[in-house]
Amino acid sequence: MAVQNRISVSFNDLEFQTLERLSAHTQKSKAELIRTIVEEFLRDNPDRFRLETSIRVKRQKNIVLPDKGEG
User: Per the confidence metrics, is the pTM higher than 0.90?
Assistant: First the structure.
């Protein structure tokens, strides 16, 4: 089966060693750990990568990640 939605991520040696240790400790693949880390970070920090504007809107709803009830 062909894999869609691939992305290539580079880590320095120290970061990769840390990821390998975490992968061994949790019995999860490095890809699964990276997906979890990114999802949790975006859920907890939805405005982290939003550009500053003069309006200073603070969103009440996270528009980066879908709600749990959505498809």
Answer: no
Say whether 15 sits in a helix, a strand or coil. helix
Most distant CA pair in the chain, distance: 48
**Distance between the two ends of the chain, CA-based, in angstroms?**
22
Mean pLDDT of 31-41: 93
Burial of residue 19 (CB within 10 Å: 0-12, 13-18, 19+) is middle
Q: Are 38 and 9 within 8 A, CB to CB?
A: no
**Sign of the C-alpha dihedral computed for residues 6, 51, 65 and 31 taken in this order:** positive
